[in-house]
Design a protein that fits this description.
Blueprint: H1 13-21, H2 28-40, H3 45-58, H4 62-74, E1 85-86, E2 89-90, E3 94-98, H5 106-114, E4 121-125, H6 135-139, H7 151-161, E5 163-167, H8 174-184, H9 192-206, E6 210-217, H10 226-242, E7 246-253, E8 261-262, H11 264-275, H12 281-297, H13 305-310, H14 313-324, E9 338-343, E10 348-352, H15 354-366, E11 380-383, E12 390-391, E13 396-402, H16 408-418, E14 419-421, E15 431-436
Helix pairs in contact: 1-3, 2-4, 4-9, 4-10, 5-11, 5-12, 5-14, 9-10, 15-16
The structure holds uracil (URA).
Length: about 450
């Protein structure tokens, strides 16, 4: 039974579970002890699952959440990026994190855009699961591009190009990785304290000095209700401040997809359009809003990100970043063997439901059902007409792309169900709130 007793035997996992079950605030020592015990294997997964369920129902105070986050950071290594240089000068580090939405390829544009200033952008990202895509899946549609860099390679790319997008190593907040796997199978993912601690533990461990969060609401988001997204933003900004990371958050809409492309190579192509000075206005607006917030956090006021998208500087930074990780920035994106058009059933202004479009893209093969599955890089959905546009019955409003024709009927059905009528509800990416922890 020693596996049921914590690492230093100062506490008892059962008492800690009961305390949270009964609504008591856990003290620092209890939190450190249980996270450490879970990481070492001394606290059993079923005990941690029970505690996750107790937290799901009882919540945590801001102090508990910050302590829980730092215990998860300490479960692995914390990168030190305080001496990253560009040229001869040490530069500040700044990163962005999105809580996940449909059509959200902002990272692909924002990371090189920020690198056109004297900053370094360490963007440690993940792969997609379910209806929201993952940044690494998108970039892996570029031939030769490598997501898995070791710490020395990460630093070398950052020093050379000012920007890196790569996979988080296994030693970055391993307690979060193990806890997320339990939450995923126990119905305890949708807990604001645990989502906040999970995201922030990885960002703090990554070593960034400043962080801007894009916290989404709407059907495409993790937490659809605006009030929940705002609360998540408040908690994450507080964790950042407690950990000495200059953190701010924009709370943004994802009731309808961002941009026109949903799917890996399709989103890379759209990101390139923006880097070439064009692209959908909603994506450009949100990219620039996040850029201004990130630059303000590192003491660069009065920046003009639009000018750097228009004059090619951001594209140059993108090309350098992709090449430094083995990718061919000029490669022709993979094309799906099968493309089906979807037409408007009636005339009038249209609406696209973000969750439905994300699910259609996932069903076409762009996403995975479980960890480790491969994705079809060319699959996804391209919207010809976006929310708020007036169409005539029979107009082509979207195309579904798939490598496997057998996937098309379900994807097309899902996309048709995501199409509605009615006046637009405002653009995706519209900023509803801004919170600053500095
Ligand atoms: N993303 C994370 O990294 N963790 C969560 O718990 C939810 C979303």
């Amino acid at each position: 039974m020693s596996a049921r007793v914590g690492p230093a035997r100062r506490h008892d996992a059962v008492r800690i579970i009961e305390a949270k079950r009964d609504g008591r605030e856990l003290d620092d020592d209890e939190i450190d002890w249980i996270v450490e015990g879970f990481t070492s294997g001394a606290v059993a997964p079923e005990q941690m699952s029970a505690l996750a369920m107790a937290i799901y129902f009882r919540g945590m105070t801001d102090h508990e959440i910050s302590r829980w986050t730092s215990a998860m950071v300490r479960s692995g290594t914390r990168l030190d990026l305080s001496t990253v240089t560009r040229g001869d000068a040490v530069v500040p580090t700044v990163d962005k994190h999105s809580t996940g939405g449909v059509g959200d390829a902002i990272t692909l544009v924002l990371t090189p855009l920020l690198a056109t200033w004297d900053v370094a952008v360490p963007q440690l990202s993940g792969r997609g699961l379910g209806h929201t895509g993952g940044t690494l899946d998108k970039l892996e549609s570029i031939p030769g591009w490598r997501a898995d860099l070791d710490a020395d390679e990460l630093r070398a790319v950052l020093t050379r190009t000012g920007a890196v997008i790569c996979a988080a190593g296994a030693d970055l907040a391993p307690a979060d990785r193990a806890l997320y796997a339990l939450r995923d199978v126990t119905g305890t993912v949708a807990s604001i304290p645990m989502i906040a601690a999970s995201i922030m533990s990885k960002k703090i461990a990554e070593g960034t000095g400043a962080l801007v969060l894009d916290v989404k609401f709407g059907s495409g988001a993790f937490l659809p209700a605006p009030a929940d997204a705002r609360e998540l933003a408040r908690v994450m900004v507080g964790i950042g401040a407690a950990a000495g990371v200059r953190t701010s958050a924009l709370v943004t809409a994802n009731h309808t997809p961002l941009g026109r492309a949903v799917g890996n190579a399709l989103e890379v192509a759209e990101a390139r359009e923006i880097l070439a000075g064009g692209g959908p206005a909603d994506m450009v607006d949100l990219t620039c809003a996040l850029a201004l917030e990130a630059l303000a956090a590192v003491g660069i006021p009065d920046a003009d990100p639009r000018a750097r998208l228009a004059d090619g500087r951001a594209m140059d930074a993108y090309r350098a970043m992709i090449s430094a990780q083995g990718g061919d920035p000029d490669a022709v994106p993979p094309r799906a063997a099968h493309v089906v058009q979807v037409r408007a059933p009636a005339s009038g202004p249209i609406r696209w439901d973000a969750l439905g479009v994300g699910r259609a893209s996932w069903l076409s093969g762009a996403g995975r059902t479980g960890p480790g599955e491969t994705v079809d890089h060319a699959a996804g959905v391209l919207l010809d007409r976006v929310e708020g546009e007036v169409v005539s019955a029979g107009d082509v409003v979207a195309t579904v792309h798939a490598g496997d024709a057998a996937r098309l009927p379900a994807a097309v059905d899902e996309l048709r169900a995501a199409l509605g009528t009615g006046p637009g509800r405002g653009p995706a990416g519209e900023v509803a709130d801004r919170l600053r922890g500095w």
